[in-house]
Amino acid sequence: MSPLYLGKQFRRLVQFAALVRPSPKIHETLRDQVHAFIGPTNRLGIGNRKTATLATYRPVGATCPDSCPYLGKGCLAQKGNVGIHQRASSAEVAPALATAAVGILYAMVTGNPWRELVSGDAGKTWEDAREYHEGLVLMLSIAKEQPNAPRWFGWRYTHLPRTPEGLAMVGRLKSLGLFTRWSDYNGPGGALVKPHDDQTIKALKAQGMKPFRCLEQSTEYENCMTCRACWERPSHTIIFKANANQYTKPNKERPWTIYDLAPTEEQRE
Ligand code: SF4
Q1: CB of 214 shorter than 6 A to ligand 1
Q2: What is the sign of the dihedral through the CA atoms of 40, 160, 107 and 247?
């Protein structure tokens, strides 16, 4: 997809987004508009108990660095509902950018950042990810200029290496409102899979880290939209428990009425 075409079409979509209001089916409205103006999207999810926002998918493996230690060895995105969505998504860049366009527009309409790439990654290498990242930079730059632009459009995690090129791109995307956490990195902006017990947390602090237990995993009612630590606490390392199943169930005890975006049963995954 040429940058000229993407930029022109995305500007039209931004004008449309300025006119619509949040509704239970806003993600479907935006997806249909993006389909008409840019092209087909990958799978989109909404109603996940953990994130409580729009989530996007790419296929696992084809878009992930080969160095990821979980690929084929316990990757959560290869299981359950996420596994179904990622297998039904395309590894091509054009649908990934169309899907990201829905996420950016969703953030503009609702004020809630979208969870970019619950499955898959930006590419096998930074070079492989370049076209996708350049498209993201283009769309985020346009969105950022708008009067209704939120501070944050989205957040994500990557297993790509912390190279100078990668750090520069992550910084650029952050300045435009897309926060990236480094998976399996024990440092600021990192995310680790470890137990939540006090001994583990104490040991991490002794190494000079600032560990933060994922709130959704350590409390009964929190989710990403109430917590926001993953993108608003850049100096912390988020600690996730190894527990796959709780991510896939809608939160029946605390439905989405607090966001005025309560999904229907079909929209719940
Ligand atoms: S730490 Fe907070 S924002 Fe990050 S995944 Fe957990 S609940 Fe979501």
Answers
A1: yes
A2: positive
How big is the chain, counted in residues?
269
Whether the pLDDT of residue 144 is over 90: the answer is yes
Assess contact for 127 and 52: CB atoms under 8 A: no
Q: Write the CA distances from 101 to 54, 66, 94, 128, 247, integer angstroms.
A: 12, 27, 11, 20, 24
Q: Which residues of 38-77 are buried (b: 16+ CB within 10 A; e: fewer)?
A: bbebbbbbbbbbbbbbbbbbbbbbebbbeebebbeeebbb
Question: What residue type is 191 in one-letter code?
Answer: A
Sequence ranges of the domains in the chain: 3-162, 185-243
**Residue 178 beta carbon below 6 angstroms from any ligand 1 atom:** no
pLDDT digits over 32-50, tens only? 999 999 999 998 888 677 8
Q: How far is the CA of 84 from the centre of ligand 1 (A)?
A: 23
Q: Look up residue 101 and give its two tokens.
A: 């366009």
